[in-house]
Amino acid sequence: MDIQHMVYFVEVVKQGSMTKASEKLFIAQPTISKTIKNLEDELQLILFDRSKKSLKLTDAGKIFFEQCNEIVNLYKDLPVVMDNLLGVKTGHLKIGLSPIMNVKKLIKILADFHNCYPNITYELIENGGKTIEQSIQIDELDVGITALPVDDRLFQSFPFYEEELKLVVNKNHPLADKEKVSLIQLENEGFILFNENFYLNDIITDSCKRAGFIPHIVSKISQWNSIEQMIIAQIGIGILPKSIIEMLSDDVRSVSIESPSIVWQLGVIWKNNKYMNFVTKEWLHFMQKQLDSK
């Protein structure tokens, strides 16, 4: 067994298919299949349950994957670690973020960090909070920004910022000129929400239930500008963060919500009990220091 065998195995698990893994690694599928078989023979263990339509890890396979994934990540980080020992602060940081967050807050801190470490590069990946958590769990992301709280058995976190959620309606909607509305007043409205991958969907739905009704959802979307266009077309109403509302057109109006008001808190999260490379450590330390100084 060598590191390359572990790389192949980890990629098969992440892709859920030997075919997809071979395409991702630019390796012939028979090579991948033979490697997995050789690993099972060497370990004298079955790593995959092949009775299913898709590849599923056995209990032994799950344990082997956790260990292999850790070793592969250490191996990939080795050149960066050595550079950093020599004082050349390099590396790559993968950050998952919500497309409905106030990205200006993040970019300001990122710009200051870049000034301190100009040789570090970044990859910002927008997605719903639930996908961000899954990506961190399988080491496709280093850190994420998503709604708090999170499962502290899986993640560590610290708060980023809190923001009010407001009602958004067409400018000709009967509630458009109101200063405030109670949530129960929206009982008979059609809601345009984000899809189930977004924790904002859960926050709004749960708030409506606590107010005494289940929201009538006419559409679920993954982009806030699509929600805006559907509101302009008078298909329904939306509830969005204040920072997003500031970017909307004059064809919509925002109204504060009370009884109860709705807020969401975003936080920075990373995987619990995991080896952390230099870049991620420095970024988390820098970001927390910046937030604490404000």
Please provide a written account of the structure:
Belongs to the LysR transcriptional regulatory family. InterPro entries: HTH-type_LysR_regulators, LysR_HTH_N, LysR_subst-bd, WH-like_DNA-bd_sf, WH_DNA-bd_sf. Pfam families: HTH_1, LysR_substrate. GO terms for molecular function: DNA binding; DNA-binding transcription factor activity. Keywords: DNA-binding, Transcription, Transcription regulation. With 294 residues, the protein is of the alpha/beta class. The protein folds into three domains: 3-82, Arc Repressor Mutant, subunit A (Orthogonal Bundle), CATH 1.10.10.10; 89-160 and 266-292, D-Maltodextrin-Binding Protein, domain 2 (3-Layer(aba) Sandwich), CATH 3.40.190; 163-263, D-Maltodextrin-Binding Protein, domain 2 (3-Layer(aba) Sandwich), CATH 3.40.190.290. It has ten helices and twelve strands. The strands form three sheets. Strands 3, 4, 5, 6, 7, 10, 11 and 12 form an eight-stranded mixed β-sheet that branches. A two-stranded antiparallel sheet has the order 1-2. Strands 8-9 form a two-stranded parallel sheet. It is globular, with a radius of gyration of 23 Å. It starts with a helix and ends with a helix. The relative contact order is 0.14. The model has no long low-confidence stretch (mean pLDDT 91).
